[in-house]
Structures are given as C-alpha cells and as structure tokens.
Amino acid sequence: VSRFDLDEMIAPLKYENGVLHLLDQLRLPTEERWVPCKTYEEVARAIKDMIVRGAPAIGCAAAYGVAIGARQKAPLDEVCKTLAATRPTAVNLFWAIDRMKRLGTTDAAALEREAIAIHDEDIAACLAIGEHGAPLLPEGTVLTHCNAGALATGGYGTALGVIRSAHRAGKKIRVYADETRPFLQGARLTAWELLKSGIDTTLITDNMAAHLMKRGEIQSVIVGADRIAASGDTANKIGTYSVALAAREHDVPFFVAAPRSTVDLKTPTGAEIPIEERAAIEVTRIGDREIAPRAVKVKNPGFDVTPARFIAAIVTEAGVARAPFEGALERLIKG
Amino acid sequence: VSRFDLDEMIAPLKYENGVLHLLDQLRLPTEERWVPCKTYEEVARAIKDMIVRGAPAIGCAAAYGVAIGARQKAPLDEVCKTLAATRPTAVNLFWAIDRMKRLGTTDAAALEREAIAIHDEDIAACLAIGEHGAPLLPEGTVLTHCNAGALATGGYGTALGVIRSAHRAGKKIRVYADETRPFLQGARLTAWELLKSGIDTTLITDNMAAHLMKRGEIQSVIVGADRIAASGDTANKIGTYSVALAAREHDVPFFVAAPRSTVDLKTPTGAEIPIEERAAIEVTRIGDREIAPRAVKVKNPGFDVTPARFIAAIVTEAGVARAPFEGALERLIKG
Fold first, then answer.
1. pLDDT tens sequence across B145-174
2. Is 0.90 topped by the overall pTM?
3. Secondary element (H or E) of residue B227
4. Which of these, A138, B180, B225, B282, has the minimum number of CB atoms within 10 Å of its CB?
5. ipTM for the complex?
C-alpha cells in the first residue's frame, strides 16, 4: 500500500488555500456533500455537530482549525480553547491541539505546515496499523462496531485499515458491520466505505452480534478507540463493551486498532475517562422521523469503556501490544 | 387489579360483530389507528406485517382469525394453515390455533366463544403473572427489552404486567426501555404504554444496557418470551441474549415473564426453536428514510435464544419456576 493508492481513496477532509473541506458525515450515504470551513469557529461547530467524527479525524480537523485561526489572526489561546471544548472523550483532539501549541508560534504558514504534517502522519500511521494488524485477523468473518475507517481518520482507517490490509494481502475476510445506534456510523459510513473498497460486508443491528457469535458466524472483532488509558482500558463508541462481553463469552478474539496519539498515559484507567452525554434527539429521531413519544426521558452516553482484560491485542503504528498492556503500551508510545 | 381497571387500559385488539379491530402497531406512537379485519386472510396479513405482534397477542388474533374464517364458511383446515404460516417462532400462535381446532366444530358462534375465552384467559394470565412477579423485582431500575406489554398480549402485559403490578403495589420502580432495533418496539410501544401508565421510563439504545449495568444503574431485567423450551431456554426478540450476557456479568437478576401457553414442552432445548429471518428493509430503512447503502447485504434474525442458565426465574400465571427449570416448568404447565 502506498500513498499513491490512497489518492483514489476515501478521505473525510481536504485542506486547500486556507479552507478545510469536510465530507459531511451526517448526509452519507445518501449524499456526498463537502462542507467548507473558512473560520476556526466553523471547524469547531463541524466537530461538535459530527460533520467530521472519529478520534483521529477530529485531531486532524482541529489541527487545521488552529492554522485557520492563525490566518484569521484570532488569539491562539482562544482558538485552542474553542476547539478543545467541542468533544470531551477522544484524546486525539487534545493531543493535536497541544502539538500545535507546542510549536510556539502564531505564524499561520508554520502552523499550516504542522497541521499538514499531523494529517500526513495520521495516514502513514493507519497504513502501518494495517500492516501490523492484518496478520492477526483469522480468515472468516470479522465484526466491527461504529466506523474506524478512512472516514474516521486522515484516510485508510484504523480498524478498517487492518481489514483493508488483510483483504489486499489476499485473506478471505468478510465483514459484519454493527449499525451502531444512535448515530448509525456503521450503517451509514462503514457499510458505505467498505462497499467502495469492494469488501464483502453485511449490515446487522447492534443487538445481533452476540447471537451470531453464539452461532459461530464471527471469527474476530476489531474496533477503533477514542481514548486508551495506560492500563489498556479502551473508550470507544457506545456498544463496544457489549460486543466485548459477547466476544469473551464465545472465545472470539477482540482487537483494538488506534494510532499512538489515542493512547493517553496520563489517564491511568478507564474509570478516569470522561464519557460524553449527547442530546436526546439523537435517540428519539432518525432524520426527521420521530420514533418515540415526545415525553419520554432519554440517556445517550456517546462512549463506553472496555476493560483491558477483554482485549487480545492493541494495534498501533509502532507495533502490537498484548496483555499486560501497562508496560507494553508505554514502550510502544515512547519507543 | 381487576378487569374493571383494564377497561380504561391499553388493548391491542377488540372483537366486535365478527370484525377484529387491531391497533396498528406500525403507526404508534405518532398515530393511534385501528385496522378492521373482516376476513381470516386480513388477520393473517396483519400478523405477518406486524400490525399486531407479541406472542400472546398473536395467539389471540389467530384465534379470532379462525372464528372469522368460520363465519366466512372457509374450509377450517385452510384457515388454520394460512394463519399458522404467518410467523414461525412464537409458539402461542400454534397453541391458539390447535386449541380452536380441538373444539372439533365449524360452528362460527362456538369458535367465537372459544376465541373470546382465549383472549379473556390471556388477560387473566397477565394479571396473575403480575401478581406472582411483582415481589421478585428489587426497587430501583428495571431494564426491559422489546415490548412484552399490554400491546403484546390480550392486555396488561407479561414483563410490563410485572412492572405495572410492582408499581401499583407502591414499589419504587423506574424503567430503562431498550429501543429494540430493528422494529423499535421499545421506543415506539413500551415507552408509549409505560408513559400512559404513569411509570418513570427512560429510553436507551440497545447497545447502552451493558454500559449502564457496569455503572450500577440497573437492578434487574425482565423480558417476555416467544417460546420457552422444556429446558428453560427462551426465545425472545433479537438482542435479549446480549442483555442476558451483560446481566450475568454484572450480577443483575434476569427474569422472564410469559403465560404457560408460551412454554413448549415438545421443544426440548433452544437449539430446536426455529428463528425467523425477516426482510432486509427493516434494517436498512426507518420509515421512508434510507439509513444504509442500497447495495449492502443484511442479516435480520427476529429472535435469539437465551440459555436457561442465564435466567433467574420464569414467571407464569401458575407461579414462579426457578432453575433447574426442566422439572419446575413441567409441573407448572401441567399443574
């Protein structure tokens, strides 16, 4: 796999002439519309509204947002604060903003080069994650939850990068994609991009995974991550923990794929990861269709935490960490 | 609780002057529309299309369907065959049709009286299930999956009947309702009828249950059943098994509530229960909104099987069975 192949591939963001263009992930798969962001405020709003989502992609978008803020000659502290206040769980957001800050300049051109570097490195990391992870996947059917694909990253994807690399290496891999309520990233995004890549994909509702594992129809699980604690506990899209419980019950290996920027050694365990609570309307409406009585109360946590003991391996661009993760992750991050 | 109270309550079906009126469960909660069925073919179509659903309610509807067929002077074998071919998993359907057949008459008035008796007995069974089950629920939050309520039965409900009886008895009970993809019975039906009954209800997506149990926010689970094997293995709406796995992991008691007609002693274990595969469009569309690419493949099993070992108790109108279920269930059914 080279960058050359990626030119024809799916990308969630493009930066041109001081404008960040985001592929509107709210409108996929029925419409492919690009949203131009000319101000850092527009970038922050797009992250909050999930026009761009996925921990690594959010990191890239925020980095470009800082560069755009510098072009606007806005106070950089204010720019960074606004961008950091968009979403609480994914650590890549804070990692990217910190890296931009650490450059110690308000020069727009220098900040732009750094944002492009963050984006380029993220794509390179995904390609390396794919290479490291592909040998782990047994032939047969792999289940994935949410979208940890090209659309969630600079390009290529983390969990879906591993699936793409295994597929390109000639492994016989089929995919079950959890639809991933409430936001339907699996139905709308994962199914869309895997079909584009010519990978055999079957859509299921989230609550079918355990039943299919019981029937022996799933050989492995691979998901992305929004934050990995030093212990290996992994925050990812709500529903991931449920899949991990089922995988353990049925002896199906459960893998996590993420760039090193998702590992947060300052967060000791999953208990310290803040979980975003999102709006009720994401649960009670789909599009403009109301699917529940208006008076009903709703819970809508965006993420859950899968304990490290349920995870067979964590795949990063620097290699594969296996349990016990504590030492292994630190070596990979710092190595 | 008396029949008098139920007069003001929710009912999914009414039989008047040879016409079966069904509350259209496809249109709830946004519209309360009654569909009149004047022929047994219309009743069969309504069961197949899930205008009426829920194992006990399907049994009642099919019984009325046989009576209507007799009024049409249709060959009763043909009537029964058509009604039995609508849905494969819920055993109450076959139980009710068999009971109508065993009457050994083609007299419409006699068949009508038998259908009314089946319906009346189902409501009485739900009230008794409620009385037997209410003491089992600990105070706090109970999770339910799908709709095992008034709308799924002759009235009052099985799992929701237990919740109603606990609530009426003054227990402090809150409910988490799984939305229950793909058909959204939890969001559309359970939330609707619990709000009508004034019970504190919070809607969640199916994939949130495990996370909330991990946080200690759920004290018990109660669900209905579509078929209970002699072993106690229980077929219920897809996703029930996933909830049972999470409940066991978190030491949350998992209860099943169903009339004796749901217990099928001729089915030895869950492995012998046929699982209905339903249309892809239930997963890829919500209303007229497409939520997935058209080209994607879909799996849509309507039910799964929860092994008996995950079930703390099965509540029937004749009392509560506890593990080991094999002897206990047979005693309850035949006793």
1. 999 999 999 999 999 999 999 999 999 999
2. yes
3. strand B227-229
4. A138
5. 0.94
